Amino acid sequence: MLKVTIKDIEFDLCDLDTEYREALAHGLMELKYLSASPLELELGTERQQQELEKVYNMSLKPKQIKQIINFICEEMKGDFQYGKFSRIASNYINLANSIEKNKKSKERG
């Protein structure tokens, strides 16, 4: 089974402007994956640092992958690097669909 993490998504955004990683961080707070910004958590208490590490390394479900990618899409629509990002987004949406399809086929048989 494929495993996708937030760390994976963040890594794939590294070739784009910082705004894409900022949109990811904003999305994680808006979608209630994190209690504060990743920077605040990273510089916070040990417990906050553990929260950040746990969330960034958890295996995402297809619905979660789509939520995060769609949030970034909405935030960055119209950006000059959006075309490059849309290829990354498309890869993650296809991957999420593939994971869903594999899960359904395993449930059937």
Helix content: over 70%
Global Rg? 15 Å
| Uncertain residue ranges | none
Q: Estimate the global geometry from the Cα principal axes.
A: flat
How many β-strand stretches? 0
Written description of the protein model:
It contains 6 helices and no strands. It is mostly helical. It is flat and about 45 Å long.
Map the helices and strands.
Elements: H1 6-12, H2 18-30, H3 38-43, H4 46-57, H5 62-76, H6 82-108
Q: What's this entry about, in short?
A:
With 109 residues, the protein is mostly helical.
Features of this protein?
single chain, flat, mainly alpha
